[in-house]
C-alpha cells in the first residue's frame, strides 16, 4: 500500500509548538490492507513536532484538547499529495467530500 510522509510542527496561533498533543487519524474507507473505521494516534513532541506515514485513502484528522477530540477535517491521501507534507497542507489542500 502506498503512503505519504507527514511531518512538521503543530503550532498555536502565537507560533508556539504544541507539546504532547494527541492527533487521532481514523480511516473512513477500506483501501488496500487498511480497514475503514480503524484509528491510529500520534502524540506531538515537546516542541510540537510530528512525523508519520499516512496510507492512501480518506481519513478524519482530529486533535485532542481538554480531553475531547475535535474534528479538524477529512482528507484524501492519494498520488496528488506531494511528499513530504504537513497536517496543515493536508487540511487546506486535500479535503475530502
Describe this structure in words.
- Helix content is 7%, strand content 45%.
- The longest helix is centred in the last third of the chain and has 7 residues, at 87-93.
- A four-stranded antiparallel β-sheet has the order 3-2-5-6, with no helix packed on it. The chain has a two-stranded antiparallel sheet with strand order 1-4.
- It has one domain: Immunoglobulins (Immunoglobulin-like, Sandwich), CATH 2.60.40.10.
- With 97 residues, it is mostly beta strands.
- Strand 5 (57-65) and strand 6 form a beta hairpin.
Rg on CA atoms, Å: 13 Å
End-to-end separation in angstroms reads 22 Å
Named at the architecture level, the CATH assignment is Sandwich
Tally of DSSP helical segments: 1
Secondary structure elements and pairings:
Blueprint: E1 3-9, E2 22-27, E3 39-43, E4 49-55, E5 57-65, E6 68-77, H1 87-93
Antiparallel strand pairs: 1-4, 2-3, 2-5, 5-6
Index terms:
Immunoglobulin-like, 97 residues, two-stranded antiparallel sheet, 4-stranded antiparallel sheet, mainly beta, 7% helix
Compact summary:
The chain has one helix at 87-93, and strands at 3-9, 22-27, 39-43, 49-55, 57-65, 68-77.
